[in-house]
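Help needed: design a sequence for this.
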């Protein structure tokens, strides 16, 4: 999206396909860019924070995603373990 903007390519009313659901900050930027739809495979959630912070972020995130069409795509992704993991290499 940023490369498109840099080269003067309009992104308004376009679709974004992504492996991960955009985080809080990225979703705000997608709304500002007037992206029409976000389609993702794996959900995002705040981690490594205390539960109060997680709940506040989730509440704000829910308000933001209500402003955009965001959908989880369901497909069998045999490589998802390497794409989505919170495990360190030593686990």
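Sure. Designed sequence:
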């Amino acid at each position: 999206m940023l490369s498109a903007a840099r080269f003067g390519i309009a992104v308004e009313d376009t679709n974004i396909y992504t492996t991960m659901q955009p985080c809080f900050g990225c979703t705000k930027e997608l709304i500002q860019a007037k992206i029409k739809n976000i389609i993702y495979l794996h959900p995002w959630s705040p981690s490594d924070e205390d539960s109060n912070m997680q709940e506040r972020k989730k509440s704000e995130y829910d308000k933001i995603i209500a402003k955009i069409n965001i959908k989880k795509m369901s497909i069998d992704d045999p490589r998802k373990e390497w794409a989505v993991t919170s495990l360190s290499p030593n686990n």
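The longest strand covers residues 15-20.
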